[in-house]
Design brief:
mainly alpha
Length: 255
């Protein structure tokens, strides 16, 4: 039916969206920005067809952030403003932290410090409720630089301290996680070694049993062969003795 065909088409489009999102992220990480921009734009078209506001907001924000990195500032502002509208519409709080922070960076770059402070403060307010350390690290860093530019050295120093503490906390957490991962990997490795040793011991035990059985079989087989040979020799001796006795009888008869 037409409804089923439409649903199948939407599934296909969503698969394309996921592929484009992954592709764009990969290009972004590899700093192949031109290819990333193409993928993000195609992703925006797909999410528009799907009427996927959240997906469109994510793609639009990422495109705006990429234009910000490459200093294509008018385009950065265009897409980040659109992402902000979409995320306000869906009340995507986590997304609003990211987009407000990026807009704070944008306005800082064009020296509109008042708007930069507004967006960074908005991001900080939302982050106070749901944000994580990574959000605060970027927000504190730009607030410190912003207040320094504004001549508010006390606030600049306060945010610089907060930024440093947050950054160090993240680094420590990463180190602890790396240690935990290394320990887990070591434990897994030790477990694998133990399993391998157990398998090896099992194989050796099975080989020993097999060898013993083989030896027993050969012993039994050898004894059987010897018994047969002995029986055969005994039989031949008896037959020779009988033949000799028969010859003697015949000789006596002829006498």
């Amino acid at each position: 039916t037409r409804k089923e065909s439409s649903a199948a088409s939407d599934v296909y489009k969503r698969q394309i969206y996921y592929s484009l999102n992954g592709l764009a992220s990969a290009y972004h990480e590899l700093k192949q920005y031109d290819s990333a921009i193409i993928a993000y734009k195609e992703g925006i078209e797909i999410t528009t067809l799907l009427n996927d506001t959240a997906g469109m907001a994510a793609m639009t924000h990422n495109l705006g952030a990429l234009y910000l990195i490459t200093n294509q500032l008018p385009l950065a502002n265009k897409y980040l403003q659109l992402a902000l509208q979409l995320r306000n519409h869906t009340n995507d709080l986590s997304g609003l932290i990211s987009t407000n922070t990026s807009l704070g960076k944008y306005f800082y770059k064009i020296h509109d410090f008042k708007k930069s402070k507004f967006h960074l403060t908005q991001a900080k307010k939302i982050a106070n409720d749901i944000g994580g350390a990574y959000d605060f690290e970027i927000i504190f860093q730009y607030l410190a630089e912003l207040h320094y530019q504004l001549g508010d050295l006390d606030s600049a120093y306060r945010y610089q301290v907060l930024y440093t503490e947050t950054r160090d906390s993240i680094r420590s957490e990463q180190v602890y996680q790396q240690i935990a991962d290394a320990e887990a990997k070591f434990q897994v490795s030790e477990k694998e070694k133990a399993l391998l040793l157990a398998e090896n011991q099992k194989s050796q035990a099975e080989f020993i049993i097999l060898e013993k059985n083989r030896q027993l079989w050969f012993s039994f087989g050898g004894a059987t062969i010897l018994l047969l040979i002995g029986s055969f020799l005994f039989y031949r001796t008896k037959q020779k003795q009988k033949s000799k006795e028969a010859t003697i009888r015949l000789s006596l008869i002829h006498i």
